[in-house]
Automatic annotation (TrEMBL):
Keyword tRNA processing appears in the UniProt entry: no
Name assigned to this protein: Ribosomal RNA large subunit methyltransferase H
Organism: Litchfieldia salsa
Gene3D superfamilies cross-referenced by the UniProt entry: 3.40.1280.10
Protein origin, superkingdom: Bacteria
Chief location of this protein within or outside the cell: cytoplasm
Family matches, as Pfam families: SPOUT_MTase
Catalytic activity, as annotated: pseudouridine(1915) in 23S rRNA + S-adenosyl-L-methionine = N(3)-methylpseudouridine(1915) in 23S rRNA + S-adenosyl-L-homocysteine + H(+)
N-terminal signal peptide: none
HAMAP family: 23SrRNA_methyltr_H
Length: 159
């Protein structure tokens, strides 16, 4: 399975990079996984609704330009489907069973994802109704992907 995580914005926090790198290393036993950072749009603190949509649109175009037609896309969004770790593991297992070897998880910028990215997505995923920094979501996501592979292989993992 080839998993790509598309994320808007550059990860600067060393502690997050270290955590992500640890899980990426662990995941090499299960799948080929790659994180692609795409630049965020620079914006002032206060934006009109139109300006917010324009920024999301530009970031969305960057994301969509990198996703091939045969990729199964899962968008991370607050309004997405909440799943347990076991449900995510089952979803990944089913995708592999049905020959979907290219999976992309998409993490938007601070304003979220464009409607075009949401339309292109095959599924949505929400980790909580709470808002998290998109940089932190990378760490949470790679940990949950790792947990999913451990669950699917029947390997022990702390709860």
């Amino acid at each position: 399975m080839n998993i790509t995580i598309f994320s808007i914005g550059k990860l600067k926090e060393k502690y997050l990079k270290q955590g992500i790198d640890e899980y990426l290393k662990r995941l090499t036993a299960y799948a080929k996984i790659e994180i692609i950072e795409l630049p965020d749009e620079k914006a002032p603190e206060t934006l009109s609704d139109i300006e917010m949509e324009q920024i999301k649109q530009k970031e969305g175009e960057r994301i969509l330009s990198k996703i091939s037609d045969d990729t199964h896309v899962i968008a991370l969004a607050i309004e997405g489907k909440m799943k347990s770790s076991e449900q995510l593991a089952d979803d990944l297992d089913k995708l592999a069973t049905y020959g979907k070897s290219k999976i992309a998880f998409v993490i938007g910028g601070s304003l979220g994802l464009s409607s075009d990215v949401m339309k292109r997505s095959n599924d949505t995923l929400s980790f909580s109704k709470m808002t998290f920094p998109h940089q932190l979501m990378r760490l949470i996501l790679v940990e949950q992907i790792y947990r999913a592979f451990r669950i699917n292989r029947g390997e022990p993992y702390h709860k």
